[in-house]
User: Fold this.
Amino acid sequence: MNLDLPILLTAVAVALGCSIIGTLLVLRRMSLISDAISHSVLLGIVLAFLATRDLASPWLLIGAAMVGVLTVMLIQLLLTTRRLKEDSAIGLVFPLLFSIGVILITRMAGDVHLDTDAVLLGELGFVWMDQTSVLGLDLPRSFIVSFCMLLANLLFVGLCYKELKISIFDAGLAASLGFSPLLLHYMLVSLVSLTAVASFDAVGSILMVALMIAPPAGARLLSNSLAQMLGWSMLLGSLSAVAGYYLAIMLDSTIGGCIAMCCGLAFLLCWLLAPERGLLAAWLRSARQRVLFAAQMLAVHIANHEGRPEEGVECHVANIAEHMHWQQQFADDVIGYARRQQMLREQDSILRLTEEGRGIAEKLMLHG
Amino acid sequence: MSRHVIPAIKVEDITVAYRETPVLWDVDVEVPPGVLMAVVGPNGAGKTTLLKSILGLIRPAAGRVFINGKPVNRQRRLIGYVPQRSSVDWDFPTTALDVVMMGRYAELGWFRRPGKKERELAMQALERVGMTDFANRQISQLSGGQQQRVFLARALVQDSEIYFLDEPFAGVDVTTEKAIVAILKELRERGRTLLVVHHDLSTLAEYFDWVLLLNVRAIAAGPVVTTATPELLARTYGGRSAYLGGNQAGEKVQ
Amino acid sequence: MDWLATLFSDYTVRIVMLGCALLGFTAGALGVFALLRRQSLLGDAISHAALPGVAIAFLLTGSRDPLVLVLGALVSGWIGTLVVSAITRSTRLREDSALGIVLSVFFGIGLVMLVIVNKLPTAGKAGLSTFLFGNASTMLASDVRTICILGLACLLCLFLFWKEFKLISFDPQFAASTGLPERLLDTSLTTLIVLAIVIGLQAVGVVLMSALVVAPAAAARQFSDRLFVVVMLGGLFGALSGVAGAGMSASIEKLPTGPVIVVFASIITVLAILLAPHRGLLPEYLRQLASRRRIETQRVLQALYRLVETDPDPYRAHDANVLQVVGLRSARHTIAAMQDLGWVERTEDRGWIRLTQAGWLEVQRSVQQREGPH
Assistant:
């Protein structure tokens, strides 16, 4: 299969570009802006195409980027009227722009290779239909475009890394330091639009959202810093792209869809297995900690009642289960555990703290 | 506290944890019937959490709650609740009267619509909080104080024995604050029990007769005069967290 | 306009329009709850998430029975909402990311399956891909029957549990404190929203169905402050968009139904935001303008009063520039307006202004009002 490599590389370039920019979106809580933009850029492409009648025209990119920015501005405009909340504003703007785009396509451009299926699906398999010569090499145009977009995204993150970091974690500080959050915001929005157009041919509009959100979301569960998250996100994104490509060949189905599936799978794995924040880790921790935690609660309980008149009732071995609202079996386990850990001792069926146990209770209550 | 009277609210060793961080540690409180009790403590002391876990809105990791000696789930009819004003979206398309009538929904039961009787009860409640003129106002057009009065009216229309109020004085004007206090005191005179999350120590003695000092654990509970002592208050507010129980008193924490 | 004539004479088209009216009504009415609970974008995720359900239902049963497909869509849309809430509850990710993941990944799975389904010899090709952008003209009487049954069931539930749904949408904590099963009600309401979305998929398509949930509701909210009225209006606007969109696309060639419906719904919304009597932007602007004029008029009257306060002749003329000296820059327009009211007049010789009798009375009234009753 001679054609494999460029297609695969295109998919990886798209995935890398999307996961870089997506990381910023996820952190800035703008994930759904990618959904909105990926839909509405269609209108820009169609308008530019109708004006130039050339699918390869750079005006398509420019038109798409402009409509992408317009989308965000319209959402902002609706919000400033204070008649709608943010979710409704987003949900109102992009379907309208997208609908106009779809209507224009079906009415006026239906005969060229720009139809609604291509919009939704994209088709990596077709990238060879449109090729350009660079440095004497014949390469698919999509590959070149998405590779350039990847470079642009890398450049943006590289140059504005510090500013982005501050604006994500402390918008107030960023403004007071003189970074214009608005400028950064619109630069980001423009890049999302451009990335959307560049990825359009390859994976289609909606599946691009999968590449922009799922890898960064998975990466968020694996990392503790922006740099780590960018790294993980690029790794997850490109792995999903490669896996999706081969899955598509196996299933003989759409490459974009399979890539989206693999993005979902990658996220699912992170969600389940992430070392600290995964479901499995949390479950293991809570199982381990349930008894420990209960023993600590018991220590605090005893510390609260020790040496007081009610001690005989509150701290009596036979009453613990009832007072702590535990099953008898669990209460026995906890008391057994606490005694093995030298936290408690029993005196005439009354539980008392050892020095160590008191230390634990004290520490817990101090650090609440 | 007398052991013969069944306490209106009995909180038994409640511990609440979000993820692995405890918010309430082994809180043990009894509220005798017919008192107007404040819950005070610094931010993050777990005041709202305590209220919510008493009402069963949060599942505690351990502990139990009794209302008049029975588990809270069987005593819902006895409970009136005023949540924090900021917990709802006031742009909701509804009127003050309508919000007050919501206090009757549980009593009405399934499939029955509020009718003339509910409307009258709601109007009476609005009158008690001085809001008759605003009955048909959309709720976003009300001031903060007026919104709080509407919430109070909704609790009044529940005609409960035990009331839980979460920061009823937050962001309200002085007139409203006085009006609310008057109503709370009137309810107490009629034998109701009230547990109120409160922020302002300077009005504590003037408004309330009992107090619970809370900072992750219950520092002390009892009549305001004997409980809100400088020493105990300092223990409640001194540093982020509490002191350890009686035998360790005096040992300062960061 | 002959397409209008064919429209209402053609039996099939009338059936289709009835279906679209009902699904529009259901989506618009339930959409109000989605709007108030800030679940507008959940609708977007649900409609995309429904696609694999449609494909699986077809793969499993081999049937194009609308009820089967809608059921498949319902189940997978519902699973989508569960995944969204599981992600937000158990991780540090925000809801927007959870929605984005569910939306795109489920949709991807759906597309992969659709491509596989379309390769099966049994698949009516046009059948399943209409679920992307919707095509009302492919709706059969049986489809419309399904829409009617499910839509009416939805609305009936909404009617039966009206006060409970209202309460949990406004104040879920209070609802729970009174002993209402808040979780269960919350899930039921979300399920109804999912149902309202999936019955519209065939006509509007998964890509755009969410707009039919958002737009009519957003428009309706501008017109009233009563929940019942808002819900009814939401339904009405939804039905209108549905009928208009279906009618147009059925009678004009090469016009996809979903996008046309969305354009109609959006136009209604934009008009509502601009023109709705109380909340509309234009009425608000006019109100502000009027009140600014009123205040300005009062200020000019006060200024004139001060000029003639101690004068035995209150009707003495003054140079209008005096007003500008006391800081009434925009006085010129106001004076013109007051001339129209007959409160002031200009002298013929120098164009100075003086109060008329009516103006003098107005001045005294305004002064009294300002000083208040003693």
Observations:
- The CA atoms of residues 161 and 175 of chain A lie 16 Å apart.
- The beta strands of chain A are 131-134, 137-140, 344-347, 350-353.
- Chain A touches chain C through 62 residues (CB under 8 Å).
- Residues 280-367 of chain A form a domain with the Arc Repressor Mutant, subunit A fold (CATH 1.10.10.10).
